[in-house]
Each structure stands twice: as structure tokens, then as C-alpha cells.
Specification:
Number of strands: 19
Radius of gyration: 40 Å
Helix content: 40-55%
Distance between the termini: 101 Å
Strand content: 25-35%
Length: 624
């Protein structure tokens, strides 16, 4: 705009272009928006873009802008503030609209939540139709009067002389209108900024950036290399270590390389949204591992809520006295129980609620429209992890894992959450693989329902090597053999519907305690003998009820059917054989003894056995 003020010749050239009354009126209206809006805010920047992009008379804007600004300072400013307070602060019915509108891309950066900005914009918009038509009428009248006075003078004749017609535009004429040198300079400057920030500035500022990140998130993070690429809104890191917040010199995560891409739409909306992230060479150690390389404070208390990095050590929330199977079940119960589902649904409802926080500023009031708990502070739309190692306990890990996460969110009040998690890798220990796992979790929460779909597939698991994973949960364990497990589970508001299948091959199952009983009736030794006799053995069962009170269906009956022949044989060989004399003595107690040397009665002989035999046969029939 200053180029017109500094060059009278260009003003004359503008007059010679003979602008239309409509262009003049639009320029006046733009000046009113400039005049009624604080010029040190982003709204003024937007109006300046309009000035340079859209066709309108710039001279009329420059000439009338000071007039509107003077009127603004003389009293219209107070009126703008009153209007802004009325629609932002006092109009509670509009809270939902303003929370949505001020969060839109670009709009979020324009300072609409300031009463002076909103009030000035509304006042200018209301007055624009009247100002447009008045300015148009005045432009027509002034132009006609001025033309009548100077039309016969030499200056007037020169000013109104017909302009020479431009030569027909050749091919590529539109490009000739561009200032190619300026475009090249701008592109070169952007390239220098991009490369300079990525290769020079961000590596030098790495320590400061990491320190601020630790301060803001309550984490204990180390980064060996950092490169920020501004034009692509991406960040790459190397040698990342995440330490336990509450334990000195304990590392829970290590990454060889990480890359993040920010969403432009998210930034324009005033939110941190990572559209895509990739990690490689990742190692997750829930229990932690000794590492003294952290240069910050040795112990830093976790902030209110939980750190976003705590997702990597979720297993620590379960009872360490249980094996992995028991801890996983504890986490499932905690995450998908009825109380948890109700809490998640309530948080979803609360996230829609809007509260207003008014802050007094020099430029009127600033009104923040805050969402309730459940409104995410950080969101990662897609996260891909390759070559990962997830330590399940001190001896077993999921190695060479591929992990895909969608909808990872973090809210300080409720912690981290995911919408979908896919884990696929090898189950390994002592440097060798002894099984494969494929887990797929889908979760959806609305204000009325929490639904979960979980698929787990374990293939060729060596049950002897995997014993630490289940030994505290079962009364049986395997000394050899392979196990395959397939499960399809849905959970709707804690109501379970789970279909499962177990296949054992080459198994040798033994009881932890030879005297233990299974289902309170079957000796563990007999059940193990029955299981080992069938190869391959397939067991199918369902789990219904709720997460809080699950009801297993089918497994007990299958095992009972499998063990019946062995129970029957055991009764005949052991109970009948060893207890026949005791049973005879008990049943015949009090009967008159037979005469010495007397032959058995014909009734006893015809029965084919003693009374004890008949009683034991009756007991054995229970297992047929």
C-alpha cells in the first residue's frame, strides 16, 4: 500500500484507469473493515490479502482508511467491544457454535475469540451494504462533477485520453504478468529457510527443544539428533530414549529413528495433529532397564494424570505377582468393565460440553471456549512401528514386530487411548523364536455405547518355553508340544461374546501338583493323561456374560468328556480294587457270619459278585 503513497505518478495512473463506481465502493468497504478491526492482529493480515488478491480500487481504500480509523478511535471502538461482549460472553446459547467456529482451519488463527475483533467485524459487515451504495452514489456524482471542471483543460484532456490498447497476449502471456525475479527470490528464500532450519538451526536448538518438551509433557526424554523441516511440516529424530518418570536411571523405550508429519489442517485449527508417524528399531521395556545416560534430573514426579509415554509401560499397572496372562486379563477387566465403559461414555459426553474463560486484555476481552474432559490435546492419526521389540517379562518378548496404531490420542485428564491397535510379530526368548502372534484391537466410543472388537491369533507356540507366560494362572503346564490359539471377541458395554479355539500338537501336559483337582472333581493327573492321549487335540469354547463376571461355556464339558474313560478306568482299577474289601465290610457289618466251611448261598452265587462289587459298579456308572 505504501507504494501508492510514495509515488504520486502511480496515483495518477490509477486515476487514468477510470475505475468503476463499484470498484471504488468495494475499496471503501474494505477500508471500513480495516478501520474497525485492530490492525496488529491476524484479521488485519487477512484483510490485506483481500486487498492484494481481489480486484477493487486500492486508492479509495487508502484515502478512506484514515477516516474510518479516526471514527473508530473516537468512539466506535467501544461500540465494537460491546457488540463483541454481547455475542461472545453474554450469549451462552452460542457457546457450541463459537467453540466449533473458532476451531475451524484458518478461523482459529484470526483472533475471532477477541471481543474487539468480532465486534468490529460484525459492525463492518452490518454497515457494508449501506456504505457500498452510498460510496457508489458519491463516486458517480464526484466523478461527473470533476470531469465537468477539467474536461476542457490540457490536464483533463490528457487524463481522459484513450489508453493505448495493449498488444494481444501471446502464448504464455499470463506468466509474463508475474514478476519472475521476485517469484524466484521467494522460492530461493523458502528453500534456504527449509534447508537451514533442517540441517543447521534445529540441530543446534535440539537441547532447548527437548528440554521444553520434557517440561511441557512431564516426560524424561533424550534425543541424539533432531531435524525440523518447516515446509513439509515434518520432524525426524534419531537415538531417542524415554525414561521412567518415577524411577532414576530406568529406561522404558528406545528408538533408533523416528519421523513425524504434522497435519496442516490441524495447525491451522490451532491443534497438534500428527497425520503420520513412523518408528523403526523400537524397543519397549515395561518393567524398565538400567540406563544412566539421562542428563536431566534423575527423578521427576509424573504430572497430574499420566504422561503420554506411559502407554509404553501399560503392563506396570497390573499386579506383578501374576504372570502375563493374569496381568493382561487384569488390564482387560480394567479397560472394558462396565464402570470403565460408563466412564468412557461420560467422558465422550463431557467432551461436547463447552465452558467459557474470559481474560481481560488491552484489545478487549479474550474468550476461550474450552471443551470438557475427553477433548484431545494431542492426536496421532496413523503410527507405524517396524523392527520393534516388546519385552513381556524378563525372559520373553515379541520381536521383529510390526505395530500399527490409528487414532492415538492424549488428554491430560484421562491419559492415552487408541482407536485401533495391530501387533504382529514373533514370540521369542533367549534369542530364538518359538511362536507367532497377531493381535488386532478396534475400539469405538460414543456418548451411548463403547464397543470393542478383539482378534488374537497365536501360532505354533512352544508351550514349554512359554511357561512363564501362564504358569501362575493354570494348574497344568507343558513339557513339550505346540499350541495354536484363535479368538474372536466382541465387547459391547462390558457384555462379552467370545469364540475361542485351542489346538495342541505333540503335547505332554503335566500337573503342577499331583494332588490337585480340576473343576473340583477331575484329578489333574487323569485330565493330563486324557489330554496327552489325543494328538492333535482341538478344544472349542465360548465366553459370555460380562467382563466383570465372565461365563465360560463348553470348555468344562469338553474336558469332562475327554476325561471320562480315564476316570472310569481309574475307578475300576484303583477305587474298586483297593476299596472292595472295605466296602464289603461296611455293607455286611452286623450280618450273621456264615458257618465255617459253609458254601456261599445260592443267591450270592447267582448275583455274580459281592455286595461291594455291585456298589462299586454303580459308582463307576456315573462316569460312563
Amino acid at each position: 500500500m505504501l507504494k501508492y503513497i510514495m509515488s504520486p505518478l502511480k496515483i495518477v495512473n490509477l486515476l487514468r484507469q477510470n475505475p468503476s463506481p463499484n470498484d471504488i465502493a468495494l475499496g471503501v468497504c474494505l477500508a471500513m473493515f480495516f478501520g474497525f478491526t485492530p490492525l496488529n492482529g491476524p484479521m488485519a493480515l487477512l484483510l490485506a490479502i483481500f486487498f492484494f488478491v481481489f480486484k477493487m480500487n486500492g486508492l479509495s481504500t487508502l484515502l478512506t482508511l484514515p477516516l474510518f480509523k479516526i471514527v473508530y478511535l473516537l468512539g466506535v471502538k467501544s461500540l465494537c467491544n460491546v457488540i463483541g461482549v454481547s455475542v461472545l460472553v453474554k450469549a451462552d446459547a452460542l457457546n457450541g457454535f463459537w467453540a466449533w467456529f473458532t476451531g475451524l482451519p484458518v478461523i482459529a488463527l484470526l483472533g475471532i475469540d477477541h471481543t474487539l475483533v468480532t465486534g468490529g467485524f460484525i459492525l463492518a459487515a452490518v454497515l457494508s451494504p449501506a456504505v457500498f451504495f452510498i460510496s457508489r452514489a458519491l463516486a458517480i456524482k464526484v466523478s461527473a462533477a470533476a470531469y465537468g471542471k477539467i474536461k476542457n483543460t490540457k490536464f483533463g484532456m490528457w487524463l481522459t485520453a484513450p489508453q493505448a490498447k495493449a498488444a494481444p497476449a501471446k502464448e504464455g502471456g499470463m506468466l509474463r504478468r508475474l514478476k519472475i525475479i521476485n517469484v524466484v527470490i521467494i522460492i530461493a528464500a523458502l528453500v534456504v529457510i527449509h534447508v537451514g532450519t533442517g540441517l543447521v538451526i534445529s540441530p543446534l536448538a535440539r537441547s532447548f527443544i527437548v528440554e521444553q518438551l520434557n517440561t511441557q509433557t512431564g516426560s524424561r526424554l533424550m534425543v541424539d539428533s533432531l531435524n525440523v523441516w518447516p515446509l513439509t511440516l515434518s520432524v525426524s529424530l534419531g537415538g531417542v530414549k524415554v525414561f521412567d518418570n518415577n524411577k532414576a536411571d530406568t529406561r522404558i523405550v528406545k528408538l533408533d529413528h523416528a519421523a513425524f508429519s504434522l497435519s496442516p489442517i490441524g495447525l491451522l485449527s490451532g491443534r497438534v495433529v500428527i497425520s503420520r508417524a513412523s518408528l523403526s528399531g523400537a524397543e519397549f521395556i515395561p518393567e524398565g532397564i538400567a540406563d544412566t545416560s539421562f542428563t536431566g534430573p534423575k527423578v521427576k514426579a509424573a504430572p497430574k494424570g499420566e504422561s503420554p509415554w506411559e502407554l509404553a509401560s501399560v503392563l506396570k499397572t497390573a499386579d506383578k505377582n501374576k504372570d502375563l496372562a493374569g496381568r493382561v486379563w487384569q488390564i482387560v477387566k480394567k479397560s472394558f468393565s462396565k464402570s470403565s465403559a460408563d466412564k468412557a461414555k461420560e467422558a465422550k459426553k463431557d467432551s461436547k460440553k463447552v465452558t467459557k474463560v474470559v481474560k481481560k486484555l488491552d484489545l478487549g476481552d479474550k474468550v476461550e471456549f474450552r471443551r470438557g474432559p475427553g477433548a484431545e490435546l494431542l492426536e496421532i492419526k496413523r503410527l507405524s512401528i517396524t523392527r520393534a521389540v516388546m519385552h513381556l517379562d524378563n525372559s520373553i518378548a515379541i520381536s521383529d514386530a510390526g505395530i500399527k496404531i490409528k487414532g492415538l490420542t492424549y488428554d491430560p485428564s484421562s491419559g492415552a487411548d487408541v482407536a485401533r491397535l495391530r501387533v504382529k510379530g514373533d514370540i521369542s526368548g533367549s534369542g530364538s523364536s518359538f511362536g507367532k502372534i497377531d493381535l488386532d484391537l478396534n475400539k469405538k466410543v460414543t456418548a451411548n455405547k463403547q464397543s470393542v472388537a478383539l482378534t488374537v491369533s497365536i501360532t505354533d507356540l512352544d508351550i514349554a518355553l512359554a511357561r512363564p507366560l501362564y504358569e501362575k494362572s493354570l494348574t497344568l503346564y507343558g513339557t513339550k508340544g505346540k499350541l495354536s490359539f484363535d479368538s474372536r471377541t466382541t465387547i459391547d458395554d462390558s457384555a462379552m461374546n467370545s469364540r475361542n479355539e485351542i489346538v495342541l500338537r505333540g503335547q505332554n501336559i503335566v500337573p503342577v501338583n499331583q494332588m490337585s483337582m480340576v473343576f473340583g472333581l477331575i484329578p489333574a493327573s487323569a485330565l493330563c493323561e486324557a489330554i496327552n492321549s489325543v494328538d492333535p487335540l482341538t478344544l472349542k469354547f465360548n465366553i459370555g456374560g460380562t467382563v466383570d463376571e465372565p461365563q465360560m461355556k463348553g470348555l468344562e464339558q469338553s474336558l469332562m468328556d475327554l476325561a471320562k474313560p480315564y476316570l472310569q478306568n481309574m475307578v475300576k482299577k484303583q477305587v474298586m480294587g483297593e476299596g472292595q474289601k472295605l466296602m464289603d465290610k461296611f455293607l455286611n457289618k452286623g450280618a450273621a457270619p456264615a458257618a465255617e466251611g459253609a458254601a456261599p448261598s445260592s443267591e450270592a452265587a447267582s448275583s455274580g459278585g459281592s455286595t461291594g462289587d455291585k456298589a462299586m459298579e454303580a459308582i463307576g456308572s456315573l462316569f460312563k
